[in-house]
Design goal:
Blueprint lengths: L12 E3 L3 E3 L6 E4 L5 E7 L17 E7 L5 E7 L5 E8 L5 E7 L16 E7 L5 E7 L5 E8 L5 E7 L18 E7 L2
Antiparallel strand pairs: 1-2, 3-4, 4-5, 5-6, 7-8, 8-9, 9-10, 11-12, 12-13
């Protein structure tokens, strides 16, 4: 399997299902429980080209490509809004839906439903097995938050881990700890 989006800046290439070469940005590759892969690639390219079938939403977006166990592309989508949006990883539920987690810096618009809480806010989007958006949520405090890791929990919810620079404000329920800029931030979501 081979796919490529040429924007004059980046070429995304995948050969087989285990190797990935990327001259500028390394995509996050998430293995789903059914043997399929999901590639999350940050992009600023705004038009559909090559194997990328969806145009950008504005600013930085995330191009997501689902690949089956045989290495064939199942679908691709672009998720984002008019600001800088990055989705770092994905985790699937028992029904084939996935949550994608990361951050956004833009106002509501495109795939982003909630208004800005501060600087960068944590952004979570749930998609069905075909890549259609089911819902999205935005969490944050006065300054910056991002989510970099997600895991399923025994109750079919999700535990999300990232970092915050915010004092206790908005969705950040605890005061800052220590003298560092960043604090670890954990969010528990229902299914």
């Amino acid at each position: 399997f081979f796919f490529q989006a040429e924007d004059g800046i980046r070429d995304y290439k995948v050969t087989g299902v285990q190797t990935c070469a990327l001259p500028i940005l390394q995509p996050n590759i998430v293995e789903l429980s059914n043997g399929q892969l999901m590639l999350l690639c940050s992009t600023t390219y705004q038009t559909a080209d090559g194997d990328r079938t969806a145009p950008g939403k504005g600013g930085n977006d995330t191009w997501v490509v689902k690949i089956n166990a045989n290495g064939s592309k199942v679908w691709d989508r672009v998720y984002g809004g008019i600001g800088g949006d990055v989705l770092n990883t994905a985790v699937a539920d028992d029904h084939g839906n996935c949550i994608l987690v990361g951050s956004t810096s833009g106002p509501a618009g495109g795939d982003i439903s909630d208004s800005c809480r501060g600087g960068n806010d944590a952004w979570i989007i749930k998609i069905d097995s075909s890549g259609n958006k089911v819902w999205d949520k935005r969490y944050g405090g006065l300054t910056d938050e991002t989510i970099s890791h997600a895991e399923r929990t025994a109750d079919n919810g999700f535990i999300l881990c990232g970092e915050t620079t915010s004092p206790q404000s908005g969705d950040v329920s605890e005061p800052k700890k220590g003298s560092g800029i960043f604090n670890t931030w954990v969010i528990k979501l229902d299914s």
